[in-house]
Design goal:
The chain is mainly α. It is 45% helix and 11% strand. Among the domains are: 41 residues, no CATH class; 77 residues, Arc Repressor Mutant, subunit A (Orthogonal Bundle), CATH 1.10.10.350. Strands 1-2-3 form a 3-stranded parallel β-sheet. Strands 4-5-8 form a 3-stranded antiparallel β-sheet. A two-stranded antiparallel ribbon has the order 6-7. The termini are far apart.
């Protein structure tokens, strides 16, 4: 069978890390089958029927974020282009008697809900609208009331084999008939999503477990609109939690992809972490999406909600640089005005980066004048006198020099090495000095050490 999945965000805000996980899961699922030679597609759909909250700049930001992550799509659609289609299918449901008008005000519905709850009853709509006479409907309309439209659910078990949750069952009589069209004529997600999934031949619907009840309702809606639910598969993954165990907020700006990109987080750091978070598979750094796709497996996803920690993402970002080859970063180094960073120097420095722009700090250390950090003037002066003669320095120079300094001063460990590192590089961290010293060169090292004698 042909496989098509979709990612369908609403352009009412920026994509955050939780949205990205849903998009990635869908993309990896499709890509895995593509790599196996099966026809499989990833659809990007904007669920933008909410005219008041949907904004074009958010739509463009979502496109940019998906492209940045590498989640390419072969099919694209906007719900705002499809209102005629939704009206058409709405009329079919009305004709079949599955969609019926209701005239209660929000206040009346809230009163009913509270009454049910006070009696210890589930707040299920009582279908009072079905008992209205034509005269009563005409009276409501004369008062200026416009109906909202509810979908009549069948009182039968709704069952499916969820790709993550396993056997899932809802008794139809325990669900309230959902509103599909508001009184102002606005279509709700429950209806438009099903129509789109039918029209675009979606085969697998993979989303968060907050949509499980939606799925129960939509299975009956699929059937009512002419598509057997047996031709669909559903998978509901647990939602990401924050470190404290709370649900990640979509409005948490610090975890939007845009903010993470601005902070220097690599897209493959995000992909590598999110693809395995909440699964039984090890979380490892990868620099290619296809590496993640080949081993992607929904059956490994746990029912226990995973915790997302921003520190884990920072650590993964560091690991990404450790395995990132020079050819993948060469052009970006040029954009950062770091063209002096050659492959050998990249290999030396990459393990010390939190984000790529950090590498700019090492340009002056290796090639220019810096302000050394002198913590012990007398010690540095003495170490300078023991420095090997200028000329060709290699990876043994640092060891030869520090051995001589150790014998002369009796220092060892951090007390021996750290003042020398700080005086030569200006930092208390960085690559191994035995590799860095030959790159900086004898002339610059001597110049920096001599500043201690001033």
């Amino acid at each position: 069978m042909s496989i098509r999945v979709r990612f369908a965000p609403s352009p009412t805000g920026l994509i955050h890390i939780g949205n990205a996980r849903t998009a990635l899961i869908n993309w990896l699922f499709a890509r895995k089958y593509q790599l196996q030679g099966q026809k499989s597609e990833f659809m990007f759909r904007l669920d933008d029927t909410d005219k008041e909250r949907s904004e074009e700049h958010f739509a463009e930001a979502i496109k940019e974020d998906l492209a940045w992550l590498g989640l390419t799509h072969t099919v694209f659609a906007r719900q705002s282009d499809r209102f005629d289609r939704y009206h058409e299918e709405m009329q079919k449901l009305i004709t079949k008697g599955r969609l019926y008008p209701c005239y209660e005000t929000p206040e009346e519905l809230d009163f009913k809900r509270k009454r049910h709850l006070s009696r210890g009853e589930p707040p299920i709509y009582d279908r009072a609208a079905l008992k209205l006479t034509d005269a009563e409907k005409a009276t409501f309309q004369a008062e200026g009331r416009h109906p909202h439209w509810r979908f009549m659910l069948n009182a039968e078990p709704i069952i499916w084999n969820d790709l993550v949750r396993g056997h899932t069952e809802f008794p139809g009589q325990s669900l309230s008939d959902p509103v599909l069209v508001r009184a102002d004529g606005a279509f709700l997600y429950t209806l438009t999503s099903v129509i789109d999934d039918i029209d675009f031949d979606i085969s697998h619907i993979l989303r968060g477990e907050d949509h499980v009840t939606n799925t129960a309702v939509q299975i009956q809606l699929f059937e009512a609109l002419g598509r057997s639910s047996q031709t669909l598969q559903f998978g509901h993954t647990t939602l990401l939690m924050d470190v404290a165990g709370g649900t990640l907020s979509k409005r948490l700006g610090s975890l939007s992809l845009q903010s993470l990109r601005d902070e220097g987080i690599e897209p493959m750091a995000i992909n590598s972490l999110l693809a395995r978070l909440g699964t039984s598979q090890p979380i490892e750094a990868h620099i290619e999406l296809d590496e993640l796709a080949k081993s992607f497996d929904l059956s490994t996803f746990s029912r226990t909600p995973p915790h997302f920690d921003a520190h884990d993402l920072e650590a993964m970002n560091h690991k990404i640089y450790q395995i990132m080859p020079y050819e993948k970063v060469k052009d970006r180094l040029i954009d950062l005005e770091c063209s002096k960073i050659t492959q050998p120097l990249w290999d030396l420095l990459r393990g010390n980066l939190r984000c790529l722009k950090d590498i700019k700090e090492w340009i002056p250390v290796c090639f220019d004048v810096i302000q050394p950090v002198i913590t012990d003037k007398d010690y540095i002066v003495q170490a300078l006198s023991l420095l090997p003669s200028s000329g060709t320095w290699d990876e043994t120079t640092w060891s030869t020099w520090t051995t001589a300094v150790k014998e002369a001063t009796g220092r060892k460990g951090k007390d021996l090495f750290m003042p020398l590192r700080q005086a030569i590089t200006g930092f208390d961290h960085g690559p191994e000095m035995k590799f860095l010293l030959p790159i900086i060169g004898s002339e610059r090292v001597i110049s920096r050490l001599r500043q201690a004698a001033v």
